[in-house]
Specification:
One of its GO terms (cellular component) is cytoplasm. The protein is α/β, with parallel strands linked by helices and 484 residues long. It contains 15 helices and twelve strands. The chain has a single domain, classed as Alkaline Phosphatase, subunit A. Strands 4-3-5-1-6-7-2-8 form an eight-stranded mixed sheet, with helices on both faces. Strands 9-10-11-12 form a four-stranded antiparallel sheet, covered by helices on one side.
């Protein structure tokens, strides 16, 4: 590690953990991610501490947990970070040229937060409108929260996924400073809905043995925590027919493969300029997607379908680490990315960084964390939807509304089909996790006592919830377009 490597961070939006590694369906085609796993390390116990887009990205940028940076729902990134001490800023301080290409979810969108260069989906939509191309992207009418399949309204070469990859290729080949190492964050906006892959991906898995959704013994209306039940009823995910869920899953897998093949263009560009072997590559997602599991869709809660992450770290070949083709059970999260990449660049994080240097964990120089805590809210200053904790083997989730709790044994029950929270045989495990969760919340000022928060049921009806949903209809119009 004597020479600072080039660094490529690749993220996707709403990609489940079981789309890579041994839990991925055998039919799913991800040759480039598989190759990175063979050359690197797969972290099988990686989690989003808040399974929502902006909090996850804020943790990547700051190296802090949501408990520290305070972003526990989608909101303005400029409220919690500026241009100093962010991931690109600290790498720029080590001599790196920095660029972000794709979905950043910054507020305002052109806030650089320390990046030298920012290329956004807005640029793609503007290019599509100004180029004279008659096709328009994502005109299926499907919203960004809907669990229904569609097909791309533009060919593969004109999709946002392909454009993000090609802009990344242009940066690697033409726009970077060749006299300095680079840090490039390539951020794909898929497989987040709308589930509209282009051909050949739209039909690639239609006849595949698509896994059926799983339903925990707790996911029926009689046992489901009220917060989870309200979420799925507001979007009516529990009313989506099984045939539609199967088609939606096929489209989702198509989007994953489209991204993988697009990543192949980026890896080829690194190869073409002689940098592939010497580039540190990290791949992950901001969170997962229920895809009908437990009668719901989207994300937010701390079940594995929603919060567990695909996470790969491929070191430069010159490091001779002997990590290639291995899997780690160390608990990992988004906040670990900043200290890990900074360590690769020869630096040390500042005092506000909470994440772990995963390179030190892999080499045995630091022990892995013993616990990882999580939380989320619906809006700023709102009551928490849940607080949660995992030690890698067991997971405890506390829902203040009601209140309600869940306990899962992830070793014996990886699909979280059985809630053990009321069983005497697991009472000791639950109490230990609960005590550690209370200690953690007190440390961050979320609690000032030894009791987890409780709130009464809101009393809203199922009909009220279904009438207040927002499917997030897609639009390519930017804020500037609306103003003018």
């Amino acid at each position: 590690m004597t020479t600072a490597p080039n660094i490529l961070l690749i993220t996707t939006d709403q990609q489940r953990h079981d789309t890579i590694g041994p839990r991925a369906p055998e039919f799913l085609r991800t040759p480039h991610l598989d190759h990175l796993a063979r050359e690197g390390v797969r972290f099988d116990a990686a989690y989003a501490q808040t399974a929502i887009c902006v909090p996850a990205r804020t943790s990547i940028m700051t190296g802090q947990s949501p408990f520290a940076h305070g972003m526990t729902c989608n909101g303005s990134t400029s409220d919690v970070m500026g241009r100093d001490d962010t991931l690109p800023a600290v790498l720029r301080g080590r001599g790196y040229g920095t660029a972000a290409i794709g979905k950043m979810h910054f507020t305002p969108p052109r806030a650089r937060h320390g990046f030298d260069e920012l290329v956004l989906p807005d640029d793609y939509y503007r290019w599509m409108r100004e180029s004279g191309i008659p096709e328009r992207p994502m005109r299926t009418g499907l919203g960004q929260n809907e669990l229904y399949p569609g097909t791309s309204t533009v060919p593969e070469s004109l999709t946002l996924t392909s454009w993000i990859a090609e802009e990344s290729v242009r940066y690697i080949r033409d726009r970077r400073d060749p006299t300095a190492p680079f840090f490039l964050w390539t951020s794909f906006s898929k497989p987040h809905p709308p589930l509209d892959p282009p051909e050949p991906y739209a039909s690639m898995y239609r006849d595949a043995p698509i896994p059926e959704p799983v339903f925990g013994d707790w996911s029926g209306d009689d046992r489901c925590p009220e917060a989870v039940k309200r979420w799925r009823q507001r979007q009516s995910y529990d009313l989506v027919p099984p045939g539609v869920i199967k088609a939606a899953r096929a489209a989702y897998y198509g989007l994953v493969t489209h991204i993988d093949y697009a990543i192949g263009h980026i890896l080829a560009a690194l190869q073409d300029v002689g940098l592939f072997d010497d580039t540190l590559i990290v791949f992950t997602s901001d969170h997962g997607e229920y895809l009908g599991d437990h009668h719901t869709g989207s994300k937010v809660f701390f079940h594995d379908a929603s919060a567990r992450l695909p996470f790969l770290l491929r070191p430069p070949k010159s490091w001779h680490t002997h990590w290639h083709g291995t899997a780690s059970e160390a608990l990992a999260t988004h906040a670990d990315i900043l200290p890990t990449l900074l360590a690769a660049a020869g630096g040390r994080p500042g005092p506000g960084v909470e994440g772990q240097n995963l390179l030190a964990v892999l080499s045995g120089d630091e022990p892995p964390r013993s616990h990882l805590c999580a939380t989320a809210t619906e809006a700023p200053s709102a009551d928490p939807l849940y607080h949660a904790i995992t030690d890698g083997r067991h997971k405890y989730i506390w829902y203040p509304e009601g209140p309600a709790s869940q306990l899962f044994d992830l070793a014996d029950d990886p699909l979280e089909l059985t809630d053990l929270s009321g069983e005497e045989r697991t009472a000791g495990v639950q109490e230990d996790l609960r005590r550690e969760l209370v200690r953690h919340l007190n440390e961050y000022g979320s609690l000032t006592c030894d009791r987890l928060p409780e709130t009464p049921p809101r009393g809203d009806s199922t009909a009220d919830r279904r009438a207040r949903s927002w499917p997030g209809y897609h639009t390519e119009w930017t804020e500037a377009d609306v103003r003018h």
